[in-house]
Amino acid sequence: MTGDPRAISMTVNGREVTLTVEPRVSLADALRQDLGLTGTHVGCEHGVCGSCTVLVDGTAVRSCLLFAVQAEGTAVETVEGLARGSALHPLQEAFRRHHALQCGFCTPGVLMTLVELLRADPCPTEAAVRDALSGNLCRCTGYQPIVAAALDAATVLAAEAAP
Amino acid sequence: MKAPPFDYHRPASLDEALGLLAGQPDARILAGGQSLVPMLNMRLAAPATLIDINRVDGLDRIEEGADRVTLGAMVRQRALEASPVVRRRLPLLAEAVAQIGHPVTRNRGTVGGSLCHLDPAAEIPAAALALDARLVAASARGTRRLAMEEFALGMMTTGLEPDEMLVAVELAAWPEGHGAGFAEFARRPGDFAMASAAALVALDGAGRVDAVRLVLGAVAATPLRVTEAEAMLMGRTPDTTLIAEAAALAGPCVTLEDPQAPLWYRARLATAMAKRALTAAVGRADRKRVAA
Amino acid sequence: MTATVMTATLGTRVPRIEDPALLRGAGRFVDDLRLPGTLHAAFVRSPYAHARVLGIDTADARALPGVAAVLTAADLTPLLTDLRLPIAFPEGQLPPEVMPFALVRDEALHVGEPVVIVVASSRRVAEDAAERVVVEYEPLPAVTDPRAALDAGAERACSTADGNLFKRFRVAFGEVDAAFAGAHAVVAERFRLHRGGGSPMETRGVVARHCSESGELTVWSSTQMPHELRHTLAERLSLPEDRVRVVTPDVGGGFGTKYLVYPEEVAVAAAARALDATVKWIEDRQEHFVSAIQERDQHWSVEMALDGDGRLLAVRGTLVHDQGAYAPHSVNVPFNSATSLPGPYALPAYDMDVAVVRTNLVPVIPVRGAGYPQGCFVMERLMDRAAERLGLDRAEIRRRNLIRPDQMPYPTPMRTRAGAPIAYDSGDYPACQAMGLEAIGYDGFGARQAAARAAGRHIGLGIAHAVKGTGRGPFESGLVRVMPDGRVSVYTGALAMGQGLKTALAQIAADTLGVPVERVDVIAGDTGFVSLGHGGYASRQTVTAGSSVLMAARAVREKALAVASGLLEAAAADLVIRDGMVEVDGVPGMAVPLARIAGMLRGLPGYAFPDGVSAGLEAVEHARFDQLAYANAFHACEVEVDVETGGVRILRYVAVTDCGRRINPLIVDGQVTGGIVHGIGNALLEEFRHDEQGQPLTTTFADYLLPTAHDAPPIELLYRESPSPLNPLGVKGAGEVGVIPVTAAVVSAVEDALAPFGARFAEAPLSPVRILETLLQTGLRTGPRNGEGGTP
Ligand code: FES
Ligand code: FES
């Protein structure tokens, strides 16, 4: 029958997983519903809000616009994989310091967008941060604290990386 | 808002993809998915089959030739931005691509997807027209090349046959020292443009226009070349007044309108964008060094 | 009460206790609940703005594998005491017909109104089935313009109603006609404010679990009013209230959108009961655009009378308010708009005639700002007009009319809907204005503007004031309990939806009880823990819940000290609580942990119990509030307008806020910044559009434009603190005052930038096309007047 489920495997936050999904299931829904990784949020399902942003093979993507079957064999990173055990990731710490989240619904997508940015551009300008964030809608914070947190986290990460 | 059911195929080779396409009456090609998947999720499209070409080998190459640069259909918009070849040989495209959506959508969005979706406001089709694009269409029957005029038939309508797939686009690389400018206006940066303009200018040793292209986006069903403006500029020194005069010819070309951007408004925007694109292109063009 | 030092954390930037889980992706939003056996709902919604339902055929849908139920209004009717939702706000004396049905029975009154609920094994299957439901409609004429709707002979938005007028009322005081007769100058204008919304990033959602074994209905809903929802469900489903529990999980923003018991919540709960199952419905974004409430659509025609010095004599006019298809919150939005118009100004006479009109559009209830932004916009625009007419500086004319600090508390002649006098409790409006003008560099702006104009750039500066009543009563619950392990639990009927409520309440409890903030847990919006509550709206929670928690924590402290005093053989006055230990001040080692006292007060069967105290180291309070605490703000911004495109860029934004004492300045900064950016959306971007048939034209985030990181300007935040005398914390709400003046300030700045062209704006949002259209009508064709500025 049209769209019969199929088994796929991928790595999620470093863990090999196998799941059986209909082709029409988005990666966002598969992560949330099949794998129980509900940190990735769905705010629009039409690719505008950015809440569902995850990394696939290191690249930030809208997981509502990618079918889970398309992610077969890839390495997916979600917000759940960000913290370092019991310690928060420096970006997460900076978000807390700067009050860069309120309701926290947009936050996982915002974090993953910034993770990609900071890996590619460890010392971004404010303009670069705003540009990276421009595809993530946040209704609560007014963005200013998010920008500040990203720039602050960049400094912390750069200091960590220094020999 | 969940997509309706469909059959999913993920060919590994072009032949396999073309074979599937030939055999499936109600199939859609899935490239970057940034336009198609929202339509599926909203159930505005319900194809029986999706042919995912993301893993088809060899569709993501950027090849530099003597006077053309060939972009595979699956070259991501983000890869274009980052490509030294594109920056050097196709600065117009590099500037245009940076204005598409947002970094995260450009991560997935592709050259071919944008051309085939053919949204009137999209940046890549406008740049492609300015760059004399030749579109390479393949099917199980063979390969053919289409000029942009043959490809962009109408509002979101391409000249591809149902069994054909866009595999690459060949863009004219203007000589070193040419100037390029791409300007657009949208409600918010990253939104679809309400008007855009792409300009290419080459100057001679005396600073006169030696070659010029002016293309408008978002003003008609398909991107539009403003040949009258080009003719006006040819052979003359492009000062502010001349640029403004040439740009003023953009306004009357506008035929697209909607309540959010009525004709008169788009016309003013088209003129303003044409002026900005031309000004940028002229400012970036070198005078041709006269051979000693 | 004994020695209590408000210590440690109050007034400091304590990082939020909410954050760690949310940052790890471990928040629990309603869609994150994955209860075994959950069925999923989808709705069939009216595609017409106004239509009669002639018949519904569900056979095809029911035949689809995986479908558990397909229910229509007829199916729900026997399950509910009344298919129609109850009126929650009766004071407007509106008839029951102003409320929607749980599912449309005979007549759909707006596009998106739910007609059929489909329950299936997954949301995907539910949507597949919903596509197979066939509803036969007879389309009826749609009413979409509230002004035309009042004409005699206008089509009716609801065929069973007498007309399209929900209600007409006046807000009036003083001798208006005499004031106008003796006025030195009168300025008049019509204003239009278009529809906008809350647009929380998390849509609505509800999970209802019915268990026939226990007879219990448990509902998790992304709502701002859990107690009201419980009451409604219990009543409509004929269940005892204590068999219904409503739990609010993490809420991904509300902004007013979720402050309503919605038809879908009742339909989902009814379906769960009918199926004796767990049913989940998560609204998708497109449903949200056509079925979640909206706000702000108003038409004003107003005139202002002034004396020769620019002092206000009177304001009068009419307000036509588009209420949409239903009036679930009575007339509170237009009422707020009308009563908020005077704002910070001493207004001797006022007469506003308000018509609340039914249209075939999405219903209106308050969105962040709750009608105040409209009143503020009208008043502040008129102030600019008056300044121009009288040749006065815009700041000076405001200064002359602001209520002075020595007039505080300032009773206005107006009354709230509940009949209490509207009286401003505290604040120094002139000082806020002075601070803001200084920060934006008001005095030097003329020179900057002239230099920019000489260079062909069009910059402008705008200013606006706002006053917002906060801390709406009648009360909020606060229960403070020391657990046997020494942790402190705080329960409240107030609602956490992202504002940092839990942190603020934890700070209050922690400081009062002498424990670290990390040792406090806050449970908000769970009807299983506190029986009474009013939820989150009207910037009320820090004021109301904060005060209750403070009072309850103080009572707990008293109790702990009383018990400790016996145990330590010391006078209560000599005791202090530090880090969870009650100590004899200055005598190290003489101490008893709160945990032990909590254990003792649990009691042991048959053993003695401490004298003079009641059981449990806990207390509950419902601090009562009959009056509002008025926060105020003064905003100033600088914009640049591109006269070729009509594009507006905000270059700088200064906000002076006085929300009384700030429990946590970090959180207040967040509230104000978020409010300002929401306001920028209202001013420049956000607009729900529809065609003449009432078909919505903005049904995605690509059409309805929220501000992005590019649209948010650099914002400078300044504060004054005028403690409210009305509550023990001295606080005022901060959640809305940030949004209120933004539209007025931004539009004023745009107009100032384009002053050389003589452009005037009396509407919002200001789209680029509207700006250019205005320029064309005024001066662009001929260029600026007086040779000022550059031609495009
Ligand atoms: S849910 Fe994917 S972009 Fe909004
Ligand atoms: S924190 Fe609520 S949407 Fe961003």
Automatic annotation (TrEMBL), chain A:
SUPFAM superfamilies: 2Fe-2S ferredoxin-like, CO dehydrogenase ISP C-domain like. Residues 6-82 form the 2Fe-2S ferredoxin-type domain. InterPro entries: 2Fe-2S-bd, 2Fe-2S-bd_dom_sf, 2Fe-2S_ferredoxin-like_sf, 2Fe-2S_ferredoxin-type, 2Fe2S_fd_BS, Beta-grasp_dom_sf, Diverse_Oxidoreductases. Keywords: 2Fe-2S, Iron, Iron-sulfur, Metal-binding, Oxidoreductase. The keyword Iron applies. Gene3D superfamilies: 3.10.20.30, [2Fe-2S]-binding domain. It holds the Pfam family Fer2. The keyword rRNA-binding does not apply. This is (2Fe-2S)-binding protein. It comes from Azospirillum oleiclasticum. The lineage of its organism: Bacteria, Pseudomonadati, Pseudomonadota, Alphaproteobacteria, Rhodospirillales.
TrEMBL record, chain B:
The keyword Transferase does not apply. The keyword Ion transport does not apply. Keywords: FAD, Flavoprotein, Oxidoreductase. Transmembrane segments: none annotated. Residues 1-176 form the FAD-binding PCMH-type domain. InterPro entries: CO_DH_flav_C, CO_DH_flav_C_dom_sf, Diverse_Substr_Oxidored, FAD-bd_PCMH, FAD-bd_PCMH-like_sf, FAD-bd_PCMH_sub1, FAD-bd_PCMH_sub2, Mopterin_DH_FAD-bd. Coiled coil: none annotated. It comes from the Bacteria. SUPFAM superfamilies: CO dehydrogenase flavoprotein C-terminal domain-like, FAD-binding/transporter-associated domain-like. This is Xanthine dehydrogenase family protein subunit M. It comes from Azospirillum oleiclasticum. The lineage of its organism: Bacteria, Pseudomonadati, Pseudomonadota, Alphaproteobacteria, Rhodospirillales.
